[in-house]
Design goal:
heterodimer; A: mainly beta; 13-stranded mixed sheet; 5 helices; B: alpha/beta; Rossmann fold; four-stranded parallel sheet; 10 helices; 37% helix; elongated
Chain lengths: 270, 333
């Protein structure tokens, strides 16, 4: 059976709450009912049918053709199935997602993968600030699952990350891995300024990074875990596998301002 | 007597201006009530108006206020008040250029102890605060003489106070300070003293919180209270054309793009941007009795008008009048 397909009619007139467009919530719902689901975030009513043309298909495999930076909360809370967005999305893509696969071919706005608990998110373009961070007022960031960004990410990627893996194939903005609690961040390009600020535990890999003076060099590592992690990530990101499983990496421990049990593993430290 | 209201640059009666604002806000798809430099009654009235309209609420100084609030609500903090700091502190560290100096005389409640006051300013504040905390944690780390002196003073102090202003330093630097303060409390006493954001931001945040459960950057478009520090950023919404009707309360109103409605309720002499409708208000606490957040005691306090006058209404009264008309307009359509 082919995918349940939504085609964007025109750029949306307001920010949309797309959290209703998940396999969990559309399974067994008729096309007429889907068309009536509300998407609005302002007082002006707007339903799925106003914004998209819908082609019937398997609700476990949703395709949204034509993205917009106003499409917020895409895939939020999903537990199974797949969503593919052919285009870009707004804030909080995959917020609180528990399972399934969310694929975005374009850019994602800020707060993508916040509160992620499981599943897989792939962002074909760039991600905004606070990738995998806590949502407003939440005590911890992403706590499971895998995120792969083919482009670059904004500031504070993996902020207060608790579990799971984030791969950024390009560069990251400032203070990646800030306040990190655990989990893994891989930056295949250049890490922004002050990586690992207030980091407690966890691991950050980077091709290029400049560690802060509150990180201390602890030699180079050739742990078995690198080979295992490289093998596990190879199907998701060849670049990440090359960096992780490649030449010896310089290891830095910190942030010594705090607990200091985090580690930065850097190919070219400067 | 000068006029107290203007519509499109012409003098108007207050009633006409209130009716025009109500009409335009009711017709807006995504109204925004912002600025919010007002007293507690004004904040409550603004909240109730926004709830009726389905509008978004944001404060002019929310970036700084939310930076402090984020640390407090995500990981907790230990803070004191300026009164307490003056009475007790034997060691004061002023971070950045904004926090005002404290008297260098011994603290009145501990006169036998001298008071040492340091100011930490300059480049790379995030890193320097990290180095200071690392040094206090006993890490062997290279740092300049200033930091070493401050670290020794903080460790030796019986009651240290660290002052900062969220307008000066990054949110991560604030968090570093708050964790450093927590660390010091293992062995001695140390408290933070954040400089509150202007425009009664702390008072407004409290009023919105007891009304809705959330501070500013609060929206009612979907009939329930939603809090989103990114989506409900007034400056961002105006720049991105995500609102079509703005009611600004207080000074420093923005200029809005063509086609966007802007009304301003502000004391005479305020910057009203390119507002279509302006209503002059009394200044709460100066020419009208008001309850405001008093930074000295770190709590809400009643303030009697210094120069009472009866011609101009406080923002709360105007907001209530607008809300009453909104109800009628909604009821009749």
């Amino acid at each position: 059976m082919s995918a349940l397909r939504f085609q964007l009619r025109a750029p949306p007139p307001q920010r949309l709450d797309c959290s209703a467009l998940t396999p969990d919530r559309l399974r067994g719902v008729s096309l007429a009912e889907i068309a009536r689901l509300p998407l609005q975030t302002t007082r002006a009513a707007l339903s799925v049918g106003d914004v998209f043309t819908i082609a019937a298909g398997d609700a476990g495999d949703i395709v949204i053709a034509g993205g917009s930076p106003l499409m917020d909360d895409i895939g939020a809370g999903m537990t199974a199935g797949t969503i593919t967005i052919e285009g870009e999305v707004g804030i909080r893509a995959g917020h609180g997602m528990r399972g399934g696969r969310l694929r975005i071919t374009g850019n994602a706005g800020p707060y993508a993968a916040t509160g992620l608990l499981g599943g897989e998110i792939e962002i074909g373009g760039d991600a905004g600030d606070f990738l995998g961070a806590p949502g407003a007022g939440e005590p911890a960031g992403m706590a499971g699952g895998v995120v792969v960004v083919r482009g670059s990410a904004g500031a504070r990627a993996a902020d207060r990350l608790r579990r799971g893996v984030i791969v950024i194939e390009g560069d990251s903005g400032d203070t990646p891995a800030s306040r990190m609690l655990a989990g893994t961040l891989v930056i295949c390009g250049r890490a922004g300024a002050a990586p690992g600020y207030l980091m407690r535990r966890g691991t950050m890999f980077a091709q290029h990074a400049t560690p802060l003076a509150t990180f201390s060099a602890t030699g180079s590592v050739d742990h078995v875990f690198r080979a295992l992690l490289a093998r596990a990530l190879a199907p998701l990101s060849a670049k990440a596998a090359t960096l992780i499983g490649g030449a010896a990496l310089a290891r830095f421990s910190g942030d010594l301002a705090g607990l200091g049990k985090g580690e930065l593993l850097i190919a070219a430290a400067a | 007597m000068t006029a107290e209201a203007w519509i499109a640059g012409r003098e108007a009666t207050r009633g006409a201006a209130i009716a025009a604002i109500a009409r335009r806000l009711v017709a807006s798809a995504n109204p925004l009530v912002a600025g919010l430099a007002t007293d507690i009654a004004g904040a409550e009235a603004a909240h109730d108006l926004a709830q009726r309209l389905g509008a978004v609420l944001d404060h002019r100084h929310s970036p700084a206020a939310l930076a402090d609030l984020a640390v407090m609500r995500e990981s907790g903090w230990l803070v004191t008040t300026p009164m307490e700091a003056r009475a007790m502190a034997d060691c004061v560290v002023l971070v950045g250029t904004t926090p005002p100096d404290l008297p260098h005389s011994p603290p009145p409640f501990a006169p036998e102890r001298a008071r040492r006051v340091f100011r930490l300013a300059g480049e790379d504040m995030m890193l320097r605060l990290g180095l200071l905390r690392a040094m206090l944690a006993g890490r062997r780390i290279a740092a300049d003489a200033d930091l070493t002196t401050i670290a020794q003073a903080l460790r030796a102090a019986r009651y240290a106070v660290i002052c900062w202003s969220a307008a000066d330093i990054s949110p991560l630097a604030i968090e570093m300070l708050c964790r450093l303060i927590e660390d010091l409390n293992d062995t001695t006493r140390c408290f933070g003293l954040p400089t509150p954001a202007p425009g009664n931001a702390a008072g407004v945040a409290q009023a919105l919180a007891w009304k809705s459960g959330f501070p500013f950057r609060l929206g009612y478009a979907r009939g329930r209270a939603e809090h989103d520090p990114w989506r409900f950023d007034a400056a961002r919404m105006i720049a991105a054309h995500e609102t079509d009707g703005v009611l600004w309360i207080g000074d420093e109103a923005p200029s809005v793009p063509a086609g966007m409605f802007l009304a301003v309720l502000a004391p005479e002499g305020s910057d009203t941007g390119n507002a279509e409708i302006v209503i002059s208000t009394a200044t709460p606490g100066r020419d009208a009795d008001a309850i405001l957040f008093d930074p000295m005691i770190g709590a809400l306090r009643f303030q009697r008008a210094a120069v009472p006058q009866n011609t101009l209404s406080p923002p709360a009264a105007i907001l209530e009048a607008i809300a009453a008309l909104c109800d009628q307009t909604v009821a009749t359509c």
